[in-house]
Amino acid sequence: MVGLIAVILARVANIWIGMGDLDMMLTYAIIVIFVGFTAYDIQKIKRNMTQIHNQNSLAIVSALSLYLNFINLFIALLRLFGDRR
Fold it and tell me: What is the total count of domains within the chain?
């Protein structure tokens, strides 16, 4: 979580600095962070599904968490592989 906050602050600082190489490094860092978040969330879901009896609310929260991870990962991949015209 600290890494994500650091990347967000660096991206905001890069708005005024305007370094293209720093932007690409931050994109790589975001990809690594959200792949880690996705793996963590999947392990958390697997662990919690066997322990909690009210699985309907847990399933909704877990699906939302994974959805946000995938959306942010997709946006970072678009930024990485997208055409910069």
Answer: 1
